[in-house]
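Input record (one chain):
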Amino acid sequence: MDIKKYLREKKEIVDSALDEYFPNLSPSATEVGFQMTLNEAIRYCLFNGGKRIRPILSMASFEASGGKGNGILPFACAIEMIHTYSLIHDDLPAMDNDDLRRGKPTCHKVFGEAVAILAGDALLTEAFQLMTNQTIQSDLALDKRLVLIIVNEVAQAAGISGMVGGQVGDIESEGKEIDLPTLQYIHTHKTGALIRVSIRVGAKLGSTDEELFEALTRYGEKIGLAFQIADDVLNVEGKIASLGKKIGSDLSKKKATYPSLLGIEESKRRAKELVELAISELRGLGSEADPLREIARFMIVRDY
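The corresponding structure, as predicted from the sequence alone:
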């Protein structure tokens, strides 16, 4: 299959849905002008050229699990909103202090630190509002218990035991010598948790059985780690024009990465091995899982 075409088509679907959930406000659409600034900041970050890998993975998992239609979109888009919030906060001076994101000034550079923090807060809370908004879930016959399970799982993946916990580990490991298990913990939580839950949400909303669900979960765990290793390598070998941000920033900040611990070639080997293992988890599925297979391969050959 043409994975780039698939990713482009799915991205357009996600972008269209996000545009519907977060439309441009006009002055007459709100009583308080302050909401305009917040809406502008949110849209600036949401539509800043993101790859949409997480919502696309959720959609691909949903379809591989027998799901039909666009009922997955509110949940897939909510995960992208959580991811975007994390990038806004990561870029802040108190965190990574980055000036560029996808080739454009970061949110706090354009709107100021206070509005950037609030835009991130708004995206996080709106994500959970979106997942629990029954008026836009008409495409799926969902019972309230399943929605509650999904919301709980996404919260875990985004919170202390997932992305936020991994980010703390990343910050506290800067400038220190750490071992491989610690580095793997950081990566599987900071990045891997949200990728893993993207797969699990898609599978839960499909009609998969328990055995297949666990296989998809293992797939998600492996590609989540492979994705972050590939990001580590790109931070060393990538090109500014493709990445849209400074190269070598991990090294200058003395961040814990796979290349700094194992070297470039070993990092590439491990990422490739993880992708092969992830694909092997899909052996019980037919062509309906081809997008998942190709996305896994794409993760370690991309240049952005």
